[in-house]
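[Q] Does anyone have a clean structure-token version of this?
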Amino acid sequence: FGPGGGTDIVGTAEVQLDVAPPNRAAFWVYPFQATDFVVGETYDLYWTVTNMKEGTLMRFNLTAMAVDGHGHLHPTSWQTLVKETCSTNSNPEIMRYVGGSIPCTFKYAMQIPADLANRKVALVASWIGNAPSVPHRI
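[A] Here you go.
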């Protein structure tokens, strides 16, 4: 709006949406929602990356971000670099629509560290190298 009110045009914008089939989407398979974990126990984490083929080897940086009472994310000291291979044979239960296909998933066995005890955290999987540049958050 103009300084005196009214409807002066001060700019224009264009929006583009890219819609992909669900079996080509990037998402966390497990955990797929807020989940309680026990310190010291090991849990298998599963995620997908857009358009991955069976046997693709990729490097990821997994980072834990603290979630405050307003839902804002804050860095923690926990992170790890992992190298994992995409597989359609890992058989995690997929709790979302995937268009009738089995997505290629990456798996990492994470032992829950003591410094994340009694905290709400979101895990961020950032891929390193030739892959999409948008991190997964769960």
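[Q] Thanks! Anything notable?
[A] The CA atoms of residues 41 and 71 lie 26 Å apart.
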